[in-house]
Design a protein that fits this description.
Layout lengths: L2 H13 L2 H8 L3 H15 L4 E4 L2 E4 L1 H28 L3 E8 L1 H4 L2 H12 L2 E8 L2 H9 L5 E4 L8 E10 L1 E4 L20 E4 L5 H13 L4 E5 L3 H9 L5 E3 L1 H5 L7 E4 L5 E9 L6 H18 L4
Parallel strand pairs: 3-4, 3-5, 8-9
Antiparallel strand pairs: 1-2, 5-12, 6-12, 7-10, 7-11
Helix pairs in contact: 1-2, 1-3, 1-4, 2-3, 6-11
C-alpha cells in the first residue's frame, strides 16, 4: 500500500464517486481508478463493486476505511501535539529548586506558565542543594537550581545569579538603627541559625569565626523563610538570602546590608546528556528576568 493509493481510496469513500474524488485530489478520473485498482491488487481485496458509472464500497472497504480513518485522526493528533511542542504549549518539565527561590519566586513563575499552557505537566521539588545535585546527576529532573556548583561530566552548569546575604532583625531592635550590620554588632545577640549542614550557614559561620565574634545561636532551622518568621516574632536576628527576606513586609522584619559581604552564588544544573526543551529554555529566561528585577532592589 502506498500513501497515494490510500488517499485516493479515502477520497472516493468520502466523496461518494470517482469523479468527485478526482476533483478533490485535482487529478484525472482514470488516475483515481488506477490508484484504486493498485490498492485492490496490493491488499488482495475487492473494495468496490462496479455498477455502470457508479462504484459501491464493499463491506471490506467500509471496514478498511474505518481503520484508515482512525490512523488519519491519530496522525492529526500527532501533528497538533508537535505544533504544541513547537509553540511550547505541551511537555513535561521536572524542576528541583533550593528553598530560597523555591518557596515564592519559582512557584510564581510555574503558576503563570501553567495558566498560560494548561497542557504542560510541571513537577516542582524544593530540596537542599545537595539533594538537587544528586537528582540532576541521576537525571531524575530536567533542571536544578542550587547553591552548589558541580564539577561532573554528566552535569552542565551555568551561573544564575549572585546576591549578598542580608541581616534581618525584629522591628524596633536596637541594632536595626544601624544602616549596615557587622558581626561585631551582633555580639551576644540571640541568633537564629540555618542548620549546621546548610551551605549558607557554613558561609556565615566562617565570617564570624574569621572576625573572632562568637554567635549566640539559640534557634536553628533549615529554611530561611522560617528564620524570617522567627525574627518577626522577636526570637532573635538572622542572616539570610535577600530573596526570602524581600517576601516579608517591612512591618514584620527589618532588612539591613551585612558586611563583610557574604555572596550567595546560585547555579543552574542540567543533565549533560539530555537536550533542553523549549519549555526549559523559556522558563530559565523568565527566571533570569525575574531575579534581575528582584536583585535591583537589593543594590
Amino acid at each position: 500500500m502506498k500513501p497515494r493509493q490510500i488517499e485516493a481510496f479515502r477520497a472516493v469513500i468520502e466523496a461518494g464517486s470517482v469523479t468527485a474524488a478526482a476533483e478533490r485530489l485535482r487529478i484525472s478520473q482514470p488516475a483515481v481508478s488506477k490508484l484504486i485498482m493498485e490498492l485492490e491488487h496490493s491488499t488482495k481485496l475487492t473494495l468496490f463493486a462496479r455498477d455502470k458509472r457508479r462504484v459501491i464500497p464493499t463491506p471490506e472497504a467500509r471496514l478498511l476505511f474505518e481503520e484508515i480513518d482512525r490512523v488519519f485522526h491519530s496522525m492529526d493528533r500527532i501533528e497538533r501535539f508537535a505544533d504544541d511542542l513547537r509553540e511550547k504549549r505541551a511537555g513535561h518539565v521536572r524542576l528541583g529548586c533550593l528553598p530560597s527561590l523555591g518557596l515564592r519566586v519559582v512557584p510564581d513563575l510555574v503558576a503563570r506558565l501553567s495558566l498560560e499552557r494548561p497542557d504542560v505537566h510541571l513537577t516542582v521539588h524544593v530540596r537542599t542543594s545537595a539533594k538537587i545535585a544528586d537528582w540532576v546527576l541521576s537525571q531524575q529532573i530536567d533542571l536544578g537550581i542550587s547553591l552548589l556548583r558541580m564539577d561532573h561530566p554528566s552535569v552542565k552548569v551555568e551561573p544564575l545569579t549572585r546576591a549578598n546575604a542580608v541581616c534581618i532583625l525584629p522591628p524596633g531592635h536596637p541594632v536595626a538603627a544601624k544602616s549596615t550590620i557587622t558581626p561585631e554588632d551582633l555580639t551576644d545577640v540571640p541568633f537564629i541559625g540555618l542548620g549546621r549542614e546548610d551551605r549558607a550557614e557554613q558561609m556565615v559561620s566562617r565570617v564570624f569565626d574569621h572576625r573572632g565574634v562568637p554567635r549566640r545561636v539559640q534557634l536553628e532551622t533549615n529554611l530561611s523563610a522560617v528564620a524570617c518568621r522567627l525574627v518577626s516574632s522577636g526570637a532573635g536576628v538572622s542572616i539570610v538570602d535577600p530573596f526570602t527576606a524581600a517576601e516579608f513586609p517591612s512591618s514584620d522584619i527589618v532588612i539591613r546590608p551585612f558586611r563583610p559581604a557574604i555572596g550567595f552564588e546560585m547555579w543552574l544544573l542540567y543533565p549533560s546528556h539530555r537536550p533542553r526543551s523549549r519549555l526549559i529554555e523559556e522558563f530559565v529566561g523568565e527566571l533570569r528576568e525575574t531575579i534581575a528585577e528582584k536583585s535591583s532592589r537589593f543594590v
